[in-house]
């Protein structure tokens, strides 16, 4: 039996077993016929693909390419014994590399890799201290897209590294394989590449197919449809099930993310061509009014939720749809974690009512409903082992490793075009834990619907404080009107940009 | 004091009730550690009726306990994302050593401040107290640069120093008030007999203040055990304590509530053992130091 | 008793060797940060230039116009006062209640101190989960008791958010007070109570006339220690509400943290920390004077 067919069959009977349509003995018997020992039976239950898989399953699902290992053995020799350090947010690629994949790299090269996992703003603080004192504590930087401007001068441009050090260049590394939209949106600042795209969480439309079908609704194609569909569900099924769940915690970056999505979708932008805050123009007000309207049909707890509460609301069947990070999708399909395995469907974000071009905005923002929150990986200029770090970076972002990350990291979005077509990825496109059946939607969203936030050093403060605090105050009834709220935020943003 | 039986019963019930209210969140949190995600988020919330799983603990400790539901496979030994057992060890080392440091330095100083009269003593104690007033945020960044200078970054010694230090004002103040409780007539008569300060301190006062030392040590241990900011800033990859690694569970794609609760519940145990060990001294020592009997 | 003689001997003892280790450690690790922060408050870090540059009085002037600063100051005072009052009163009541050898009370005292063992940030997460409007167990209990409307999310409503955060704060730190008060209660002499009993004093009279005055030093220590920390703590607010909704729970310590760590404005962060330090020092000194605390 072919491996992919075998896996598909296993997934199928696993789902049956999990739903109680098959008893344990039958399940084990079938599984035994598939040539699987008891140790491989974790698929679909008990494990936590949301946070990475276990080792037995990892070996089943992913083995590194012998070519890559051979190359690592070859070029890594002079660096054996070196230790590399990287500070990163707790994201699927970093977790998959840290817990499962880095051992392949370490065994082949003799280079030790230490990964420090921190909350995002702590990563920023550590990088800033490293840069401010030119310490070189960290050999590699994990750079959130919103910091690209700040750190562009502190890292090597990977294109230069690739051509300057031919002896260290990975064969077939192929810089052109990175999705061009991501290179523009995440890695590029002015003319430099600030590392390569490493991770791509992006907003996609996730909805409950069963509920939509029951009420005779179609997947929302426009923002207006998103509202009318959601309202219909809340009207008929509330307060047990609501049509939509948002991520609206006051003062949290999550609120800014969702707002930006709606802002861009209404033809607005955060900054206009004069580099002035434009959330308070006509389109900006329309967007905020739409957001308030949508909020009225969301569950009452939504004002306290980040994407975490939002995801739980969908996972527990409290909400029927959300426009949020694609990484949630495989989690929803995991029957051990949620009540809605197999019931969700992913589509590209709703069509915008109007859309500005990049030229009509300031600070390089890219309007689009599919808000992205990607990050890049780069070698620090202060590193004491830049060559070893460059080897690690190529390995960590090469196509083969990305396949491993996607399979082991629970269906996270790859940043390389070829990975989406990899047979190992396609084999996982079935209902169940760690599914990749949403990835084609992710790919299309990146290509055609992606929205990117502006690049300016003050953005960390504006995006994680000024805007979400102002919006939170508005939703808590702290302003008289949407216009008043937006004008106030505009004033504060101007103040920050001046200071 | 003699109380009627009715009052005693009432008081017993009230005591249990009050502590029950305070204990409830810990109970609930501990049950979360034994739940799958789908049993954590519910309406109405589930209090007892859920399918227990040891998965969260298995992942945190990198071992397979083999109980729970379904055919679970082994977790990655020592390699999973949430493998935190060594961090528990780091916490224990740092909390105990920094407690020893704080207690030794503070006991010496507190005895002196309790027994010796010198000009500016009141102001001196105020100054010691004021060193606790600086917001930790403001101390963390300069500390980072000092530590870098002395190669203390990411070392046990560095964190132990800073935690010991952070607890000094608290320890000095508490120890002083405990020494104050021990009648100074004892010292004075010994002094008249020709004993040195050091002898009196070691042979007479220190044994009497055992309970106070125990109470202070518990608090120092707890403050070091729960400290977040200094460990965050002053360590990198070799050491980390429980509060800091707990933030690993808040991932970019949601929070691993079950694992976080598992580590939280597991982290209660060592600290609780310390409290229980000290508890006996606490009760006995404090009453011994007084004139109650 | 030969008071004069004793005093002479006491004075002849030098406090220097006893205090030297303490002073050495405190100077290195606190005086330096203090001066560093004063210096930093006249500078600012510019991420683009990778440099700390002199900005004169700019940070201090900015303080006056900064509405966020003033509103955070107000929230901080409310938070400080409410938490302190609740923790003292509850702490004293529970300490008195548990200060008896009744069935299981030894265990109860130990269990109560468990709340202190949980890192504040995790305690914040616990209460965040319990106060969630959709899934929270505390929300559920309050709903069932008819004390809360299901459509009112505790942490996302301006009028209730601070109370929601304070619940976590008070839950965690009341046992701290109990621990200290209990130690104080246990060291009280028995004779005055016996005399008062013979005089037929009521329990309340004994508490007011005997316990409170004799405990004054212990209470002062507890109030100072917790009061100082209340100005510095931000974990609960940070984790549970991010200071929201709007700025309804935004405290000064959270502001200083964000300026330093999230916005990388080290200069302004240092300025805010110094303001906070100054306020605590003034308050502590007033307290020490008013309550005539002599060390």
Automatic annotation (TrEMBL), chain A:
Protein name stated in the entry: ABC transporter substrate-binding protein
Cellular localisation: Periplasm
Assigned keywords, A-Z: Periplasm
InterPro entries: Bact_solute-bd_prot1 (IPR050490), SBP (IPR006059), TAT_signal (IPR006311)
UniProt cross-references to PANTHER family, sorted A to Z: ARABINOSE-BINDING PROTEIN-RELATED, DIACETYLCHITOBIOSE BINDING PROTEIN DASA
Cross-referenced PROSITE patterns: TAT
Keyword Cytoplasm belongs to the record: no
Annotated Gene Ontology cellular component terms: periplasmic space
Taxonomic placement: Bacteria, Pseudomonadati, Pseudomonadota, Alphaproteobacteria, Hyphomicrobiales
Protein family: Belongs to the bacterial solute-binding protein 1 family.
TrEMBL record, chain B:
InterPro entries: BP-dep_ABC_trans_perm, MetI-like, MetI-like_sf
Gene3D superfamilies reported in the protein's UniProt record: MetI-like (1.10.3720.10)
Keyword line: Cell membrane, Membrane, Sugar transport, Transmembrane, Transmembrane helix, Transport
Source species: Metarhizobium album
Record's function text: Part of the ABC transporter complex MalEFGK involved in maltose/maltodextrin import. Probably responsible for the translocation of the substrate across the membrane.
Gene Ontology biological process terms in this record: transmembrane transport
Entry-linked Pfam families: BPD_transp_1
TM regions (residue ranges): 12-34, 92-113, 125-147, 153-174, 212-236, 256-278
Segments forming domain ABC transmembrane type-1: 88-278
Gene Ontology annotations for the cellular component aspect, listed alphabetically: plasma membrane
PROSITE patterns referenced in this protein's UniProt entry, alphabetically: ABC_TM1
Compartment annotation: Cell membrane
Similarity comment text for this entry: Belongs to the binding-protein-dependent transport system permease family. MalFG subfamily.
Keyword Membrane found: yes
Protein name, entry field: Maltose/maltodextrin transport system permease protein MalG
CDD domains in the record: TM_PBP2
Membrane topology: Multi-pass membrane protein
Automatic annotation (TrEMBL), chain C:
GO cellular component: plasma membrane
One GO term (biological process): transmembrane transport
Domain of life: Bacteria
InterPro entries named in the record: MetI-like, MetI-like_sf
Localization annotation: Cell membrane
Membrane topology, record value: Multi-pass membrane protein
Family to which the UniProt record says this protein belongs: Belongs to the binding-protein-dependent transport system permease family.
Name of this protein: Sugar ABC transporter permease
Origin species: Metarhizobium album
Lineage: Bacteria, Pseudomonadati, Pseudomonadota, Alphaproteobacteria, Hyphomicrobiales
